[in-house]
Write a structure and sequence with these properties.
By secondary structure, the protein is an alpha/beta fold. 31% of the residues lie in helices and 18% in strands. Residues 47-218 form the AAA+ ATPase domain.
Length: 251
Amino acid sequence: MDPSYTRRVTGRFLRDIAVDRDVDTTAYPFRLPIVRGLIATGHLDLAPGVTFLTGDNGSGKSTLVEAIAVAAGFNAEGGSRNFQFATQSTESALGRHLTVGRQAGRRERSNFFFRAESFYNVVTEIDNLGVADGYGGHSLHERSHGESFLDLIANRFHPGGLYLLDEPEAALSPRGLLIALARLHDLTEAGSQMLIATHSPILLALPGATILQVEDDGRLRRVTYDEADAVQVTRNFLSDPQRTLRHLLAD
């Protein structure tokens, strides 16, 4: 970690986001709960440091992170703003109807958009570009999915950066999640801003992070770690697995 770049510089590069109000909320992706919630509230302020988006499947978290990335100039499949490849255009139209406000006078030193579902395509592009040295000095295709993500955040994520991550826990073991948690903490302390969609109760424990939970009506509610649904469901299961299984598997 660069000792010259610490939290003396606040990690805030994206200030807020807003969705156009003249969209058809009966059509995809504008009918997604999180999008309807944003339209209803007008905009979403993005805090310095780390902001987690959490909520149930189908709430629209990943779609929103993808749209923010596209609106902020990232490649839809992932990578930095310098990545221009396209394997298959599957991104939603939301990014074209999203306004991203930047913090005046601030520019990140590094940036990256990570999508678990298309990271394979990003790794292939890294090999095609011949820039593997910046990712640990070897092809990430030679690593497991989880190892390649840990290589990414260890070697390519730098202090003072802007990082958008969609479900980074997808390929990580519990131990891998703890390693990732420590790295994200270091990056935050060194002035980075991150927006992360996740279901992981381990990642949600990141000290100082803002946790925004998608409610049933689509509105984003700031919650504490203990209030987050992902934490409560996991904690209840681990405290008495047999009780949960009896309930789930009852005839």
